[in-house]
Amino acid sequence: MKWLSSALHVSRLYPILFFSWFAALGEHLFAMGSFSMFGIRLGRRKNCYIRNIARFGVASVAGKLYVIGGGSDRVDPLTGDHDTIFASNEVWSYDPLHRLWAQRAPMLVARAMFACYALDGKIIVAGGFTNCRKSISEAEIYDPEADTWKSLPDLRQAHPSACSGLVFKDKMHVLHKGISTVQILEDGGNYWAVEDYSWLQGPMAMVGGELYVLSNSCIRKQHGENFPDKMVPCASGFQSRIGFGMIGLGDSICLFGGVIGPGPRNQCIKPLSDVDILNVASERPTWRQGSPMTRCRGSIAGCALLKI
């Protein structure tokens, strides 16, 4: 697998990685052993000025990438004061063919650290925190063709912790950090059901409709019910690696970037451009290294798949 600078002209599946100040776009060509990559700078770029580059949501539909909500992580170098924008309702879309950003209709509710996922050509957001750092239960759905947001029923439960979203068995699931229950959007979006699946905590990835979680340096396949989870080979080398992106691509789980945190023998933070791949469809899954990213390294703020 190689990372190359290239224009995009074919229909492929691309992993999108958001770093602290820019994103990486890679072409999924595992069979041919190559990647195509270029950076998307989050800041002033032609017709775009994205201020909120922390705690945002990211999803892709209809060949475009969407950066939703979130806040600023800027700190005044003179006073040390943090930016007052913790959460916003801003929405930006990115067209990778024309390399243009466009501002879209804002969310009905400003939010940060919320669940966000694409389902059936639309984007669902739920939960999170307001600009006053108050946890909320409101949910809404975005139609990219109409460029409109509509309210969904509120979550049954709101928790004072960050939440994330994923689509499992064709339904939106909302998970809160540190909470064993999962909230599921049922009946075509008419209500949220609450189930206690006791899923493991940790980075998650969907591969072939199955959910995998990296917990205690091991990848485990989770079920929708309280069945024993299946363990895939451990990844002890990731114990000191934090802030990485994890996503499912084809039959594989991919880990991108991150940093090596300070330890007893190392007081420095080392940003990584590493790419590690695990084919979970193999009879004996083993981790292998892909070619490192060429223009991106360090902590990843969000991941999404983009089909062009």
Topology of this structure?
Layout: E1 3-5, E2 13-19, E3 22-26, E4 35-41, E5 44-45, E6 48-49, E7 57-61, E8 64-68, E9 91-95, E10 100-103, E11 115-119, E12 122-126, E13 139-143, E14 148-152, E15 163-168, E16 171-176, E17 181-186, E18 191-196, E19 204-207, E20 210-215, E21 218-222, E22 230-234, E23 241-242, E24 245-249, E25 252-256, E26 259-260, E27 270-271, E28 275-279, E29 287-290, E30 300-307
Parallel strand pairs: 1-4
Antiparallel strand pairs: 2-3, 2-30, 3-4, 5-6, 7-8, 8-9, 9-10, 11-12, 12-13, 13-14, 15-16, 16-17, 17-18, 19-20, 20-21, 21-22, 23-26, 24-25, 25-28, 26-27, 28-29
Strand ordering within the main sheet? 1-4-3-2-30
CATH architecture: 6 Propeller
Which fold name fills CATH's third level, the topology? Neuraminidase
Helix % is under 10%
Based on DSSP secondary structure assignment, what is the total number of beta strands? Answer: 30
Average of per-residue pLDDT values:
81
Rounded to the nearest angstrom, the distance between the terminal CA atoms is: 20 Å
Q: Judging from the principal axes of the Cα atoms, what is the shape?
A: globular
State which percent range the strand residues make up.
over 45%
Major beta-sheet overview: 5 strands, mixed
**CATH superfamily placement:** Kelch-type beta propeller
- What is the string of helix and strand elements? EEEEEEEEEEEEEEEEEEEEEEEEEEEEEE
